Amino acid sequence: MLTAVSRVLRTTSAAPDFGALRQTEFARLDIGGHAYLDYTGSALYPRSLVDAHASMLHGAVLGNPHAENPASLASSAHIAEARRRVLQFLDADPTEYVVCFTANATAAIGLVAAGYRFGADAPLVLTADNHNSVNGMREYALRAGAEVHYLPLDEELRCRPDRSESCRPERSESCRPERVEGPALPPFKQGLFAYPAQSNFSGVKHPLSLVREAQSLGYRVLLDAAAFLPMTRLSLREYPADFVALSFYKMFGYPTGIGALVAKRDALAELQRPWFSGGTVEFVSVQNGMHALRGGEEGFEDGTANFLGISAIPAGLDYLESLGLKNIERHSTGLAVQLIDALTSSRHRNGRPLAEVYGPHDSESRGATVAFNVLTHSGDVVPYAVVEQRARDAHVSVRGGCFCNPGASEAAFRFPADAMAQCLTSTKAEGWSLQRFGECMIGYPVGAVRASFGAPSNASDLRRLVAVVESFAM
Length: 474
Known about the structure:
Layout: H1 2-9, H2 18-25, H3 27-31, E1 35-36, H4 47-59, H5 70-89, E2 97-102, H6 105-115, E3 124-127, H7 132-135, H8 137-143, E4 148-151, E5 164-167, E6 178-180, E7 192-196, H9 209-216, E8 220-224, E9 243-247, H10 248-252, E10 259-264, H11 265-270, E11 281-285, E12 290-293, H12 307-310, H13 313-323, H14 325-345, E13 355-358, E14 369-374, H15 384-393, E15 396-397, E16 399-401, H16 406-412, H17 417-430, H18 434-440, E17 448-452, H19 459-470
Parallel strand pairs: 1-15, 3-4, 3-7, 7-8, 8-9
Antiparallel strand pairs: 2-10, 4-5, 5-6, 9-10, 11-12, 13-14, 14-17, 16-17
Helix pairs in contact: 6-8, 14-19
């Protein structure tokens, strides 16, 4: 794959030609008139990756890896190579880390949530900025009698670990935060700290230094790297998180349905699986009620791995490395900052702002994701669904909503906790819907528009989105 692509990617030995990349690998965008700006939702697959994988499959005979026949052994070899390449990509020592393939990043997080030994002396600490796949871990913690602490966000939606909020077990139904004083990360021998390396809402990159800081206080650390890895290098030698969750379609678009939990061997060994399944056991006895889990990663890979899809992972990683993550980041984040500049400078004829951008407005410690709302000439928020519809009519792909990130949304929209709780309670009783919740939260937006850039993005995509926004000017 790389031999064919490299001729058009690089104008010098250091920087790829992103214009040529779009013409060769993503020509379907311009042929179809697409402005695709949802790379945080999913990367687009390069044509050469699909072609290379199809070519390999045409000549291969691959079978279920849970056997010792030639077809099974061939699949096992592909899986082993994929594990090796993932560890190499993350600069992870293979004597310290293993790779557990999962259906997606959510399933990877679920493995940790279900197996972690939460308890009175083993709390869960989360940043307020987390995907719901991480927020959902609190249900396991609360059920085990553990406390759940949240680290709030500042006005730029950056993590503020100087104050914490707590959800106590007896309040598990609503889990409304109760502010508590004291150190943000109190020392616990068995606590778990989970946070995103990059926000899927605002694009903020939270400090990787929090990994070692939390570990110094006795915590295991789960790093959600799904939004981070598509364009930013992560070294697990430098920032040795105990668990890392990732998704491959977020990184290079293909294949879908495969993620991974990259875990320290000793951290994985501490997890207590609540069940067993095919593929995870050495033996099971029905009449004796006994079983033995397989050691290491295989004890956490339920059922038959997606061995055909996994075989595409090395080529996908090759594609990213051929471009260079720093180059992708520089290109994509540069477009994101240009969008922020355009949005923050746009005005209605009466001088009022045309849009509000959430999160930092500069390029410092941020990715290529921009969340915003369009404003009317009187300062009210245009419903995100209206903006999404107009973008759809213009063949511009953006995303609308809260992006499964309620904590960042609540901070961005400045929801008063009491008013929000009242609206959630009343609308839940009536049969919750976003429309009812929005009608209750008068004066506050209940969603935003998110644009995110990737390697194929260009200035034309940017201009088309800005034109959609400016069409609301009065």
